[in-house]
């Protein structure tokens, strides 16, 4: 397990977001990304919301989708800080993909499972 401060971990999440191609980042809509300490279910990340592919003409006035990145859960599966950096990127990309309507099976096919 790797111990990282919340502040440093949040910087890693911000760095991962900076790696999202600008043309994709611009398409993200009504979504908030939050670092939480842990998920009781052992999740590394979680997307809650209505994917872009399921939003219709009646989509308006709703609360933002949420992406949670779980600091302690990610740190618990890593042995080095470098592994944390890699896992944060994988988790951020994975959850953003759900925002775009990509399911777990397709993410696994693409190597982001």
TrEMBL record:
Where does the source fall among the domains of life?
Bacteria
Q: Does the keyword Protease apply?
A: yes
| Alphabetical list of InterPro entries matching this protein | Zincin_1, Zincin_1_sf
- Claim: Metal-binding is one of the keywords in the record: no
Name a single GO biological process. proteolysis
**Keywords in alphabetical order:** Hydrolase, Protease
Q: Name one Pfam family in it.
A: Zincin_1
Q: Which GO terms describe its molecular function?
A: peptidase activity
Give the protein name, as stated in the record.
Answer: Putative Zn-dependent protease with MMP-like domain
């Amino acid at each position: 397990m790797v111990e990282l401060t919340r502040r440093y971990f949040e910087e890693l999440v911000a760095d991962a977001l900076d790696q999202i191609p600008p043309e994709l980042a611009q398409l993200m809509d009504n979504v908030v990304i939050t670092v939480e300490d842990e998920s009781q279910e052992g999740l590394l990340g979680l997307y809650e919301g209505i994917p872009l592919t399921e939003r219709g003409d009646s989509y308006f006035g709703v609360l933002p989708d949420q992406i949670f990145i779980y600091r302690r859960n990610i740190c618990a599966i890593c042995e080095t800080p470098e592994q944390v950096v890699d896992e944060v990127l994988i988790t951020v990309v994975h959850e953003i993909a759900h925002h775009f309507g990509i399911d777990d099976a397709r993410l696994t096919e693409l190597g982001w499972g």
